[in-house]
């Protein structure tokens, strides 16, 4: 059986972060823990948590990418990873720190926006419920 390799594409909301071919293995993190993908694994979908995505190519060796929460989809040799944010690097300690600082803690502005959105949603639901009772 000939050696088949995977094609990896890491997508961010507004652009492609990375597009690699010749990927021999991928390791990703979910709520249930880390799992690995090899080229002949069955197709799958996984919800990713903030963490380190690892992939390996013959040209680059092992590459680390810090990713925010998102989704991974494997269809045949193609693996698509769609996340909100991603950072690349060779130093695993610095990437782990970046995940903790940038991805796991929400900045004040994002918390404020979420608070406003929750209030708007609650107001909408109250008004919608009042229409049903009329």
Reading the helices and strands in chain order gives: EEEEEEEEEHH
| N- to C-terminal distance | 68 Å
Summed over residues and divided by their number, the pLDDT gives a mean of 86
Can you tell me the residue ranges where pLDDT is under 50 for at least 5 consecutive residues?
A: none
Main β-sheet description: 9 strands, mixed
Per DSSP, the total helix count is 2
Principal-axes shape call: elongated
Number of strands: 9
Strand content: over 45%
In helices, the fraction of residues equals 25-40%
The computed structural class is alpha+beta
Radius of gyration: 19 Å
Detailed description of the structure:
By secondary structure, the chain is an alpha+beta fold. 28% of the residues lie in helices and 46% in strands. It is elongated and about 65 Å long. The termini are far apart.
Describe the structure concisely.
By secondary structure, the chain is an alpha+beta fold. The protein has helices at 92-103, 108-133, and strands at 6-11, 16-30, 33-37, 44-48, 51-57, 61-67, 70-75, 78-83, 86-89. The longest helix has 26 residues, at 108-133.
List the helices and strands and how they pair.
Elements: E1 6-11, E2 16-30, E3 33-37, E4 44-48, E5 51-57, E6 61-67, E7 70-75, E8 78-83, E9 86-89, H1 92-103, H2 108-133
Parallel strand pairs: 1-8
Antiparallel strand pairs: 1-2, 2-3, 2-5, 4-7, 5-6, 6-9, 7-8
